[in-house]
## 1
Amino acid sequence: MELRLSTAVAVVTGAASGIGRACARALIGEGARVGLIDRDEAAGSALAEELGPDALFVAADVTDEGGMRSAVDTIARRFDGLDIVVGCAGISGPFGRPVDEIALADWNAVLAVNVTGPFLIVKHALRHLRRSSMPAVVLLASDSSFVAAPGMVPYNASKGAVLQLTRALSVDLAIDGVRVNCVCPSVVDTPMARADLGIGPNGFAAADFPVQTPDEVARHVLYLASPASRPVNGQALVSDFGYLARSSFPA
Ligand SMILES: NC(=O)c1ccc[n+]([C@@H]2O[C@H](COP(=O)([O-])OP(=O)(O)OC[C@H]3O[C@@H](n4cnc5c(N)ncnc54)[C@H](O)[C@@H]3O)[C@@H](O)[C@H]2O)c1
């Protein structure tokens, strides 16, 4: 399939690790120029160096409005425009903690990164996207947008919000021709999932549940970011090995 991304300029948040890093690499592989945003300066700079002159790293926190505005403007100035926003930055927050033991600060932190973060990047990318001939936004939601993983109340709530943020943005930005979609993977082998699930250095090899790779998710993201998915808008691409489709019927 021809993705037609070779002239595109993209910005990826959470680009220093996991799915964001895979998306940045895949976009560079398609010939795009890519702005990398992350709060992890060391990993972000190292990735930019590895990817070469078509990548630019800007250290910023996605919850900081001034930082987001300036990061987006810096990237659009360097690459002369902006066509694609990929919102990957996310945190899982407290894992396995009963709801009456979740600190308000932890709740607020998850909502800030996972929901306010995508709002801010889209808000400040919009004036650049309006000048693009192929504007697209892809947000990282989760299968937790639809079903609740136990012990992750703030995360599940935040990912439900990302799904509805996707739909709401797609409706409001239709007038600007900006498509907004999200991807909703189940467990992906990244540092986040390994930490949450207590997975050691051998990774998920012995897991008795299906696990996907960041590269697999990146392919879904690139399709939704590409003109190849031109009629697709306001949608959630669920990659969960079919779990959501299964009824409880005992047969
Ligand atoms: N790993 C999974 O199983 C899985 C499944 C479904 C959805 N997701 C979602 O995919 C996205 C990426 O997750 P991942 O597994 O690659 O995680 P990860 O921890 O490997 O990477 C997340 C990146 O986001 C950055 N980040 C976090 N908070 C930030 C902030 N405030 N400002 C700037 N950067 C920040 C981190 O520094 C890190 O580089 C998240 O939104 C996550 O919720 C992950």
## 2
Amino acid sequence: MNRGILGTIGSPLVQVSSPPGSVIAAKIESKNPGGSAKDRPALAMVEAAEKAGKLSPGDRIVEPTSGNTGIGLSVVAAAKGYDITVVMPASKSPERRQLMAAYGADLELIDGTISDAKDRADELEAEEGMIQLGQFDNPANPEAHYRTTGKEIVEQVDGHRIDALVAGIGTGGTISGVGRRLKEAFPDVSIVGVEPETNAVLSGGEPGDDEFQGMGPGFVSPNLDRDLLTDVETVSIGEAEAECRRLAREEGILVGQSSGGSLVAAKRIARRLAEERSIDPKACPGPDNNVGILEDEPVDTEPIPESCPLVITVFWDSGERYMSTGLFE
Ligand SMILES: Cc1ncc(COP(=O)(O)O)c(C=O)c1O
């Protein structure tokens, strides 16, 4: 028995289909209690503020967010007894708003980008005495991924070498924290960021509009450790959405655009690694869903040869959070 919902944070690492001669596995972050990767930094930022004496029950938290951090913080606030105001661009999906409201959060919708939401949260902090946790520069954000997401991945690969981490970048917390952990365990691992092709600031482009929720903030987040990055890939919303539909229909995995986009880029890297290393296209087994749920003993699965390049990616949240966007129609 868990003594509280927040103790259930964590997620499985699941193999998905990949180019011949490679293996890709994704962290299924929708399995966290608030349904996304952001439960991890939400809890870490609150606990760090409590430890520093900046936050005690009864205080009101304020946070600008495009959604998942707001939901994660709403879960943490509800479970720990804080009030919370979430400032959010009105363009983000209504499912996100409804979820935060269900957890008892107050919402302030603004016309504009995440940067405008940040300006408004700064005002509320200065004028109303609310406490902002600052996911873009709070070190507890990447630290949460270093201590949980990254640690879990190293344990979940059962000793197989990891060749690359390919992940979208919002605050940079996930790629920086997980990347640091993976580099310690596998010094040669490549760390590849993913950003929207119409908002490719890290690739040297101008900030622009995009329809991704959660990745591509339009500026370089202070929480992004750029020195860790080997490379940055750009993806279009069209190819990311097509990948989401394929994943749902062919693999039974429901995710949103930034997860689809991360997988598009992960496949490029996996294909490159398989070619560079001339891996036999038949050498690496695909996903195996022969579970044997009614059997007493676990069903044997074909082992993954050490020669197969292994690429890790992150599926941030569930596709259920994107139904109103028409993504699956
Ligand atoms: C849907 C989605 N994709 C990608 C990201 C990127 O994560 P990070 O902020 O850790 O860079 C997030 C973070 O909120 C997200 O919610």
